[in-house]
Amino acid sequence: MPVGLFRVCLLVITAIVNHPLFFPKENGTVPENTEEIIQKMKEREESLRLEQLRLEQEIADQEATQKALEKAAVVVEESKEEKVQWDMWTALSMVIFLLIELWRQDFQEGNWQDTGGEEDDMAVLGKAFKGVAFPDKAVLASFYEKRILGTTGDMARMREMVEGFADDLLEALRSVCNRDADMEVEDCMGVGSMYENWRVRKPFVCDLIVPFAPPEPYCFRCQTWCSGDSFPPDEQGYGTIKVCRADEDATGCICDKTKLGEDMLCLLHSQVSSTRPSSEMEDLLCFKNTQYLDADQVMKWFQIAVTKAWNRIAHKYEFDLSFSLLDSPGALKIKFKSGKSIAFNLTPVVQYENSDVYFISHFPRSSLAADIPSSTHWFLTFAVYERRFIQLVSKTLPANACHISCLQILSFLHGKQCSLTGPSGLTNYHLKTVLLHLLQARPSQDWAPEKLEARLQDMLKFLEKCLHEKKLYHFFIGNGKVPAELGFPIIFQRAEPLNLFRPFVLRRDIYRKMVDTFHEMLRNMSALINEYTVHIPLAHTNGIRKEPL
């Protein structure tokens, strides 16, 4: 502190001493370069002024930039708030839309399932069907008795005749075949509408399948789309059949996958048997240069074998036998001298393991396998299990149950409509699939004979729903509720459900034709039924309420 006071005092004394007023004027000296100093001071003042202006300008620019940034920040913040509000409204709209869609689907599902109320209730199928009159019970009963019931006896007589002749023909086929080189043919089995007692359209055609196996020492190794390996979506429902030696491992010997040395031999396979000539595999009806069974080769072999068999036994019969359809190699026709004829299909199949599922080369008169990927892909048929399921369920239903009657009436209406407007993608197999689903879904008492009208409406509503959603799932594939009494293979129960309407999703023209045919069938239903119905007195219908669909 003293040092600081001393410095201040020293500075004051120095300033006083050097002040010009303490010196007289005469003793003062004026610098000679005063003007030069003044000029420099002015220049210095001017430079300071310019520097001040420059600094003021920079400060103004900084303030303007700051204001612009603040304004931009405000705009961005406002846009963010607006975007958040817009996203919130969009999300809210999507949630509302999804809730409405879920409610609509639940309502539709509950609408057709909750049809087990009063038997006289007439539910509306859809907006397109309002005003379409549904035949009453008396009309349906009269139609069924006159048009359908009388055909049952004809079917039984025809089945008996065809089965007897087919057995004789196959026995002759075995005798003309080489047991050491040709395929071994087993006994035939009847499947389809003729053996499920619901076929109504003439001409009656029996469908018989004939299992066959390769000669010793060969066997079939079957692989399906659901056996583990990935199959394209268009190959679902198909499988392949590999011809192997019986002593060959299913996965193949390691000698086929590893290059052995020149001094090494496989103890299981000799050098001769390790490589099979292509001619040998072709003799086993395989596709060229492969071990996979060729459906086209099988049908050619079967046609030739049937022709040889008929030539051997033709002298025993007073009729002719011929192949009736070029596109169906197993379609046969018996021609009597009177001019009458009987048609039936004899189709070779391959058994899947030890089950009653079969690989079938083609479907006669059907579009189920119209787009087969290749001749080495075989479609799987569950016709034997379908017949057994109908027989099993029929035992639990009331006497004279109406389930077969519903399918017969619907099949008749569909056939009549197709004869008027042309065929469509909808087939009798689709109609049978609808019945199988309803047989499993509804209790047995709902199939009493007096409930024919209500159950027929259920089938129409179920079919309309499937057409609208383009989804009709195969009854057995992916169905975990199949009765255990059938012994159905578990691998197909665990598979993904197979949509029978999948081929129509991308083929909009066929789908449109199918929907239009269904609509026309509903509109023409009363007219088609009344055409085959006798006159019913008014007194019989006074107690029956008739409402439009």
Automatic annotation (TrEMBL):
Gene Ontology cellular-component annotations: nuclear outer membrane; plasma membrane
Domain Mab-21-like HhH/H2TH-like: 403-477
Localization in the cell: Cell membrane; Nucleus outer membrane
Alphabetical list of InterPro entries matching this protein: ITPRIP-like, Mab-21_HhH/H2TH-like, MAB21L/cGLR
Membrane topology: Single-pass type I membrane protein
Main localization of the protein described in the UniProt heading: membrane
Endpoints of the signal sequence: 1-20
Keyword Membrane attributed: yes
Recorded coiled-coil stretches: 38-72
Keywords: Cell membrane, Coiled coil, Glycoprotein, Membrane, Nucleus, Signal, Transmembrane, Transmembrane helix
Gene Ontology terms for molecular function: protein kinase inhibitor activity
Role description: Enhances Ca(2+)-mediated inhibition of inositol 1,4,5-triphosphate receptor (ITPR) Ca(2+) release.
Annotated PANTHER family: CELL FATE DETERMINING PROTEIN MAB21-RELATED, INOSITOL 1,4,5-TRISPHOSPHATE RECEPTOR-INTERACTING PROTEIN
Family (UniProt): Belongs to the ITPRIP family.
Protein name, UniProt field: Inositol 1,4,5-trisphosphate receptor-interacting protein
